[in-house]
């Protein structure tokens, strides 16, 4: 570990760097505080070393000076980190239902006089207990939680959760003294308690989030531009290192308060490196920014928006998701920020980045005809069992490409073409050629001064 400090008449700050394998962690803030922590995972240990060294040199150029770390402080930090057992925790991360793994972990904690170990053991016993025995176990568990939960939460999170009305903005599900599922967010402009991003930062830094598996991030009310913002909330979870247990992440307006175009999701690309076991990613809102869509474990990705930026469309096209089986993308209208095109997603249609993909939704697009044409001629189509091209501006031209390649679509279990602009005659032809197809539900295009206008279903 290396430590730099900066001091002038107005401030005294620190910046610490630690490189471990393919990842490096920086901790920074005001001297005398715990500061904030950020972890980034790189492609290799060499790249992690190089990038970390580059950041360190940048700090030195800004006036930071490297200091010798106090041996006692280093020892204290090491002792605190050794209170965790990555190997035993990993067994639970990989299979939270494995009671044997929980028992071993609980025993290990008890050997260190950690009351959490006793709680785990009692909870395992309670699962099969009955009558007076179960009542006694319940009482002891309740006592342990009352005595230790504030310590387990940490001072910051304990203070936030004690706020009156906190249930309106934060819902937590507990198991064995740990938070395993959380929903944080709210759009009440009159809310005077801690902001969602403040709660999220405290949550992911707290020991009770060690086994957090499911997280839903909602909005914060922005009085300046009257929007529901999720971007600060999203970035809050990247500040405290890796969320090793997280398998499901959803970013959405949890209160269904805003039009989809009146929300800001923000930069999701920074989240992916800190959630190594993530299986499901669901995003709903506008201004969804992803520069690189790569992850070793993701199985399902859903991106629902009224306006997908071209950069994100290109990230989808170039994605490398070896375990992905389901992908749904809404492109939206250029009136609401959509700037993607068929060329952006052509690499996806080769199938090289998604070898296990079975269900593909390329929906709500102003270039829906081009999607139909390219998919009909793509290598990817053969490996799919379901295709969704609904909610867009497909006309008889795009539907005609599907009819022409009907044999290539015949193996699909589902083909959804609803709410496009396909004529009744061509809909009938599609049903005759592909009985599994879903069509209809669309309204006629708008007409203005003799010109027809086609529009996607989801925009604002």
From TrEMBL:
UniProt domain WGR: residue ranges: 1-78
CDD domains named in the record: WGR_MMR_like
Coiled coil start-end: none
SMART domains: WGR (SM00773)
InterPro entries with a match to the protein in the record: CHP02996_rpt-companion-dom, LolB, LRR_dom_sf, WGR_dom_sf, WGR_domain, YehF/YfeS-like_WGR
Gene3D superfamilies: Ribonuclease Inhibitor, WGR domain
Pfam families hit by this protein: WGR
PROSITE patterns: WGR (PS51977)
Protein name: WGR domain protein
Source organism: Enhygromyxa salina
């Amino acid at each position: 570990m290396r430590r730099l400090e900066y001091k002038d008449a107005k401030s005294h700050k620190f910046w610490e760097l630690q490189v471990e394998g393919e990842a490096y962690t920086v901790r920074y803030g005001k001297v005398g505080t715990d500061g904030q922590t950020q972890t980034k995972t790189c492609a290799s240990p060499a790249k992690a070393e190089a990038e970390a060294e580059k950041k360190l040199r940048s700090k030195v150029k800004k006036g930071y000076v490297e200091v010798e770390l106090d041996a006692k402080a280093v020892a204290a930090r090491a002792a605190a980190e050794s209170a965790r057992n990555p190997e035993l925790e990993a067994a639970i991360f990989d299979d939270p239902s494995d009671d044997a793994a929980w028992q071993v972990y609980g025993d290990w904690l008890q050997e260190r006089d950690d009351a959490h170990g006793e709680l785990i053991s009692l909870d395992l016993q309670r699962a099969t207990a009955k009558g007076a025995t179960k009542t006694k176990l319940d009482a002891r568990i309740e006592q342990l939680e009352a005595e230790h939960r504030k310590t387990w939460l940490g001072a910051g999170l304990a203070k936030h959760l004690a706020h009156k009305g906190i249930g309106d903005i934060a819902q937590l599900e507990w198991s064995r003294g740990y938070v395993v599922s959380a929903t944080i967010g709210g759009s009440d402009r009159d809310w005077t308690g801690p902001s969602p991003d403040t709660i999220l930062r405290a949550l992911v830094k707290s020991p009770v989030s060690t086994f957090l598996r499911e997280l839903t991030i909602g909005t914060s009310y922005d009085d300046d531009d009257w929007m529901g913002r999720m971007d600060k909330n999203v970035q809050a979870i990247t500040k405290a290192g890796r969320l090793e247990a997280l398998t499901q992440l959803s970013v959405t307006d949890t209160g269904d308060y805003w039009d989809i175009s009146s929300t800001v999701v923000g930069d999701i690309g920074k989240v992916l490196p800190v959630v190594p076991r993530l299986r499901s990613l669901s995003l709903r809102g506008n201004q969804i920014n992803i520069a690189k869509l790569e992850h070793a474990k993701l199985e399902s990705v859903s991106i629902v928006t009224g306006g997908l930026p071209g950069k994100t469309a290109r990230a989808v096209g170039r994605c490398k998701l070896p375990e992905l089986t389901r992908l749904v993308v809404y492109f939206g209208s250029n009136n609401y920020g959509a700037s993607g095109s068929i060329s952006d997603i052509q690499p996806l249609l080769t199938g090289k980045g998604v070898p296990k993909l079975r269900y593909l939704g390329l929906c709500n697009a102003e270039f829906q005809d081009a999607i139909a044409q390219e998919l009909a001629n793509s290598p990817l189509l053969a490996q799919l069992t379901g295709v969704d091209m609904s909610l867009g501006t497909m006309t008889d031209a795009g539907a005609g490409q599907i009819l022409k390649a009907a044999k290539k679509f015949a193996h699909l279990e589902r083909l959804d073409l609803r709410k496009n602009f396909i004529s009744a005659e061509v809909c009938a032809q599609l049903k005759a050629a592909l009985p599994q197809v879903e069509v209809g539900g669309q309204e006629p295009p708008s007409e203005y001064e003799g010109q027809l206008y086609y529009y996607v279903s989801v925009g604002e």
